[in-house]
Every structure is written in C-alpha cells, then in structure tokens.
Here is the input.
Amino acid sequence: MEFGVFDHLDHGNIPLEAYYESRLRIVEMYDRGGFYGYHVAEHHATPLGMAPSPSVFLAAVAQRTKTLRFGPMVYALPLYHPLRLAEEICMLDQMSGGRLELGFGRGASPLEIDIFGPNPKDAQNIYQESLEIILMALKDHHVNYQGKFYSLNDVPVALTPKQLPHPPMWYGIHAVESAARAGTNDLNVISLDTAVDTGPMVAAYKDARREAGHQGPFEPKIGIGRFVVVGETDEEALAVARRAYRVWHKSFNYLFNHRGAAGPKHQRPSEFDAMAALGRAVAGSPETVINVLRKEMMVSDANYLVGQFVFGDMSSLEAESSVGMFIDSVLPLLDA
Here is the structure.
C-alpha cells in the first residue's frame, strides 16, 4: 500500500499569503513523511480552489520538496490551449527532476467552463482533441493536427519532459465504464466513491487492463480518496472534522448557489457524520482511523490511499497536528 494526498486547496479564514505558506509547510510534511504523491484540484471562481492555476502552485511545491511526486487532479483541458499546457508540463517535470504526475479531465463543473467561453456541451470533445495534441507534443516533439477546435500546422516543440515519453497519467473514475476505459489505456486511477461501489470499478479496471495486454514490473495505482482527521481521541478529531467539513461543503456548493443552479453532479452529504457513515471520511484516534481505512482498502481492493487531510477552516496548528499524527501513528501500521 502507498499513500497520497488530494487537496482542493479550499480557502478557510486566513489571509491568502499566509494560507499558501501554511499549505506549503504541510506539503513539506508529506514529503518528509514518505507520501508518494500530492494531487491538486483545479477550480475557478469559487473558494473551493485557491490553486486555479495548478502549475503555478506546483512549481512552488517542486522547490519545497525532495522526493514527493505531485500533479494536478486534474488539469481541466477545455480551459487551456493544449500546446501551451504541454510546454508547462515539460517545465514542471524538468524543474522537479522528473516528479510530475499528470491528471487530465474535461472539468467537473460546467459553470466554471462556461465562465471562460467554451460551450460546456463541447467539453468532452475539446478534452479529446487537447489530450491528443498534448501527448503528440510530449512524445513526438512536433505537432501537426487538424481538428474541430484546434488546428496546428508544423509546430516544433522545443521542450521535453524529464520522464519519457511522458509523466505517469491519472484519471478520476466514477463508474464501471470509466474504470474500464482507464484500464484499457493503462492509467492510474482514483475513486472518491464508497468502497462497495469502487470494488466493481476496480474489477472492471483490472479486467480491461489485462485484456489490453498491459504488463510490466510496475502495477498502476488504484486509489480511493477519503477525508481524514486524526486526533488524540475520537471526540477531539470529530470536533475539528465536523466544523471544518461544513465550511468545505459551503465552498463545494458556492458557485452553484451563486448562480442559482442545481448542485454539483457528484454532490456530497452536508455533514461530516453522513460522509463517515458512507466510509468516505474518518475522524478519530489513530486506532479508529487505522481500523476504518484498513477496511476501506480491503473492500475496495485499492492499493493507494489518498487522504484529504486539510480542508475547510482547519487552522495551521490543527492541520499540522492531524497530519503529524497520521504520519507517526497511522501510516506505519497501515503499511505493515
């Protein structure tokens, strides 16, 4: 089992400059604590995401860490010119000594896509064209492409990634069908769904990967994401988690409420206890957290635990205490 982090970088209640510095200090803890990867969300026009340009924040992460791998989960491709993004990817991978991990998607929120001009109904097709161009740029260092949304004629790509032909790729799965597509394409995956729902996705992923003939010395990562808060006692951890989760949930729905629109496609319960009842969150003593997460990993058949450790209005002290206890008292026993 390996361990990672998913981070919305949602805004709490401290000034933004101090917020970024606090988050970077916690990222340094992940690095020292032996985590594999740090995965950053991309959101716009909402306090849910204070890293609307993931590459900018990840450039700072690259300079503050030594072994931690990192990347977007995901770059919302309809919001980028693919050639420009391919160049950024090369820069980040080289500047980090080859530690970049790539998540690509069409964008979770049609409201955010609409703000920047693309028709949300075109998002999937734009995503497909963009991904083809990005991979062509990274692998071939030269782009000729004619599509509905992009036309590139004889464009040289002067930069190359450190990891060849390109950094490892990731995809978020929410259904058996998307899991099977990811398996066919040999992508690493993360599910935020319940362990019971994730289990069939993992089976479909493995079947599709095997049928596609993917073999090698390294198994892909199959992750499940969970809110995690650790305290000296269950009561202490739950008090922090319940309060902070309400703030996070308000940010999660902020833009939809602002626009008077229906909520997110993958809505979350409004209270932490409801998330915990689904197995999608845990707050407690190290022993409680170990027992819950061990069961979640077993039922889902995942091999990569992705914690959302800092969220809502958690203070720097609360966040660093929880993460430190996870590193010292949970991670070694889960990994045993």
